[in-house]
Amino acid sequence: xxxxxxxxLEIYTFVANTQKKFVASKQIKFSDEALALAHKIMKRYPEGxxxxxxxxxxxxxxxxxxxxxxxxxxxxxxxxxxxxxxxxYEVASFYSMFNLKPVGKCVIEVCRxxxxxxxxxxxxxxxxxxxxxxxxxxxxxxxxxxxxxxxCLASCGTAPMMQVGETYHENxxxxxxxxxxxxxxxxxxxxxxxxxxxIKNHSDIHQ
Amino acid sequence: MxxxxxxxxxDKEGINTLAGYKAHGGYSSLEKALKMKPExxxxxxxxxxxxxxxxxxxxxxxxxxxxxxxxxxxxxxxCNADESEPGTFKDRFLMEKKxxxxxxxxxxxxxxxxxxxxxxxxxxxxxxxxxxxxxxxQEAYDAGFLGKNILGSGYDLDLYVHCGGGxxxxxxxxxxxxxxxxxxxxxxxxxxxxxxVGLYGCPTVVxxxxxxxxxxWIVNNSGxxxxxxxxxxxxxxxxxxxxxxxxxxxxxxxxxxxxxxxFIFSDKYCGGILNGKKLKAVVAGGSSVPILPAELILxxxxxxxxxxxxxxxxxxxxxxxxxxxxxxxxVMDEDTSIVKNLWNFTRFYHHESCGQCxxxxxxxxxxxxxxxxxxxxxxxxxxxxxxxxxxxxIEGKTICPLGEAAAWPVAAAIRHFRPxxxxxxxxxxxxxxxxxYYRVNKLVGVTD
Lengths: 207, 448
Hints:
heterodimer, A: alpha+beta, Glutaredoxin, 2 domains, four-stranded mixed sheet, 50% helix, globular, B: alpha/beta, Ubiquitin-like (UB roll), 3 domains, five-stranded mixed sheet, four-stranded parallel sheet, 20 helices
């Protein structure tokens, strides 16, 4: 019993320390552009209902902070929306697009459901696993790629497919997939669902 | 037969921009609609007999007429673009190629319902479509189709896009409303229905993308004209997302009532089965609807040819029929393992269950585990009955239809393909998983 307790304590202190380090290494604050965008989005909902903006803002937060949501980041979002932190945690843990653990710069999301599976998604996952030397859910040692399998991405007619950031890579073959991954490796930049340049230049997002 | 009203002009240049869309007759219904009374528009939609294209097939006009109109309370229209049903990709296609048809439909619908704020809830994974819509809405604002005093009519409307975070359950209308309010997407108990208590506690109508995209045509050409398209109570056209083992996967707009056989084998549509294989089974309306073996999808139990319509596909009930659902048409060839495919679907439902109701939360997990036992080769014969038992205990015992959606495919697979389950039991680990050799060939880019 005590062993289990200590074990829990250990994990707790580990997590707490990592968070402390994270907060210390980075000041948790949106860039000016992201903040302006967040306020723009919050105004879309009626007075007092700005909590509605939580999903878009979590997407932006994920882009701003290396593709994942740490507890301090979620606390910051709560502060921004004037809600309790727990309201952000429960939402972030419910939706599958939010990463609650650190991820690689480039998250590869391979669709594994129904039609994609019929057209060979399983083989495609195995191929990527072999190429990157990781298993599903893991990150490469250089921190470049994280491999995720996801449920239907509404691209069944062009199966098999994978998503990287907002880009759909469809009608994959092993060769095509190989080239795509090489290209991302070459670029080596952080890619999120809400692209960075879309935060910098959000004039097309109306108020 | 063969009329198209939604995607007939996709080849026109610039149809994805406001200028191009307008040049080909876009936004004409808006001027007409704003001169009509809102009730007249609802009446036209009722006459058209159009049914919800998201899966349930509920008459749209009825849904609109249910909306409560308490004084001084805002009303909302929400477009359900959270398309995540496996096998369905029509809405993404439509929004990507022709975003303005949705916006036009939403403006007219909002006017008819008396809503001054409307939202498009798009799933987060389709982030690039989100930005396409943002751009299109900005264009519509600039042209005076949105904002204050639209086209001088005195009607104000603000239309916003909202992106989700990746949850199938948010395609259920009350789950979607919860999610739009910034909470977990747990569906609500009904009644009260959203038409009375919806978004922020106000009367709300939630419609699918394709349903709303039909509104401009109905207003332009009258509901009676629309009712002439299609067959019987399945009026109009339907976007079908064809996928799986076929030669020409993609989105097709069909007039309701064409034979299923024509749809699968004609070169105009799916173009037959990949590599000249035989047809084994079809899931006709997205993964949630019962799977049907080849002989039952081509012909009903009575021996009549089966047609692509709500009625014909559900002919024979769940014993020998299925549903049109959301139009996700998944075709499987003779080499496909129904058991393994079912395990794949069940894993999906287990993953996507919101966890609110125990039968669904636990049941989907158990079904996945038992099916995994089959493919791993240590299932026993009684597991088939156990599976049957579990699905029966989920169906109808949950708040939202995800429970049914998870139970129906299991029931149908056992009903129609029981010998295959037995084969898995008999052969155990010696069951050879037929490798889709051509599939692998396709992946390496070799055509045979």
